[in-house]
Amino acid sequence: MRFSVKTGAPLLAMALALTACGTSGGDDEEASGGGGEAGTCEDVSLGYFGALTGSAANLGINIRNGVELAVDQFNEENADCQVGLEEYDSQGSPDQATGLATQAIGDETVIGIVGPAFSGESETAGPIFAEEGLPTITASATNPTLAENGWDTFQRILGNDASQGPAAASYISDVLQSQSVFVVDDASAYGKGLADIVNEELGDVVVGDDTIQTGQTDFSATVTAIRSSNAEAVFFGGYYAEAGLLVQQMRAGGVEATFVVADGVKDPGFIEAAGDAAEGTIITCPCLPPEESQEFFDAYQEAYDTAPATYSAEAYDAANVFLEGILEGNTDRESLLEWVNDYEGEQTTKTVKFDETGEVENISVWAYKVVNGEIVADQEIETD
Q1: Average pLDDT of 215-225?
Q2: Which of 20, 147, 347, 373 has the fewest Cβ atoms within 10 angstroms?
Q3: DSSP assignment string, 176-217
Q4: How many whole angstroms separate alpha carbon 121 and alpha carbon 93?
Q5: Is there a single domain that holds both residue 315 and residue 356?
Q6: Domain range holding 299?
Q7: Would the CA dihedral through 372, 7, 143, 211 be positive or negative?
Q8: Is the peptide bond between 127 and the residue preceding it cis, with omega within 30 degrees of 0?
Q9: Does residue 305 share a domain with residue 197?
């Protein structure tokens, strides 16, 4: 797949109203799956599965809030069909995923999961959900191999790292025009997987690589290796906590290379950790800038007294796919899974339609930049 950077690209059309009320995806007769009576439901819940505490909590809370907003709006519009929301706090750790997935399976009212939020926990929880037929839509887990397991219950509402990785490499080559790049990963399923793709795409331009660990705070050895390589750019695959400390120590060590990261770093926590060293960082993300959907942006701002952040809008869309199905009478796991697998409809970030592996067909990758202490949209990186 070839990528090109497009400056000033036309923005995606936003056709979805704020609630799921009265809408449906695809052909109603095929997609409804033969569930209960349309417009009524009892003891039905969605689940959010991801970090609410721990070092990656900010990313998880962004996602949970998007789900919660969709459920709250739905309940306001549908007095006869009230949907609950259960939360499964994984702390972003695969070690927590087995127990939480088992708990979700045992919660009989839960008929759909938005999540898991991270790739590592998705690898662990995915087989459990698949075996029990509990449909899931992740709004943020981007490791490409998740769609290669044959899980009928797996859906992903954003592009994976097979699109984000080449896009990041394209930006480094075409926009930054870097002739030498150092690649660092955090050894996680997400970070290493993404860094490996970028490394492969850049080829001979890569002058060195290194691996750190999640939770590590001293990066002096890595900084020394980067400085010795004379790299013009550094790509880091990992999350915002380590990224902030790494770039701070890079700048303190005299490394001026452009710092390029991905969606796991697109959070104010990165700037808090890095301070002034964050300035100029490039962040790629298979996510539309949330401010491009003004209705959603305003509703989120009103509900949470803060702007929507990374994957809030994608989580909102994932929840609304489920909620549309519930409104059409799909109030058990089997029929809701059939609904999701057959779904096609307009949501806030894109037209949503999943292929046979669970990947969404309509994807986009954007580059963001830290400017004056804020993460702002830079340009869309388009697939050819």
Answers
A1: 97
A2: 373
A3: S--S-EEEEE-SSHHHHHHHHHHHHHHGGGEEEEEE--TT--
A4: 6
A5: yes
A6: 14-158+289-362
A7: negative
A8: no
A9: no
Same domain, 20 and 147: yes
Q: Please tell me whether residues 62 and 186 are part of one structural domain.
A: no
Q: Are 265 and 142 in contact (CB under 8 A)?
A: no
Other residues' Cβ atoms within 10 Å of the Cβ of residue 283: 27
Rg (CA), the chain: 20
**What are the structure tokens assigned to 54, written together?**
């721990």
> Strand, coil or helix: what is 111?
strand
Three-state secondary structure readout of 278-322: HCCCEEEECCCCHHHCHHHHHHHHHHHCCCCCCCHHHHHHHHHHH
- Give the total number of structural domains in the chain: 2
Query: Which tokens belong to 364?
Result: 């986009």
Q: What is the pLDDT of residues 313-357, one digit of tens each?
A: 999 999 999 999 999 999 999 999 999 999 999 999 999 999 999
DSSP state, residue 204: G
Assigned token pair, 276: 């002034």
Q: For 117, phi and psi rounded to 5 degrees?
A: -80, -30
Which whole number is the average pLDDT over 244-254? 97
7 located within any domain: no
As beta bridge partners, residue 344 has 353
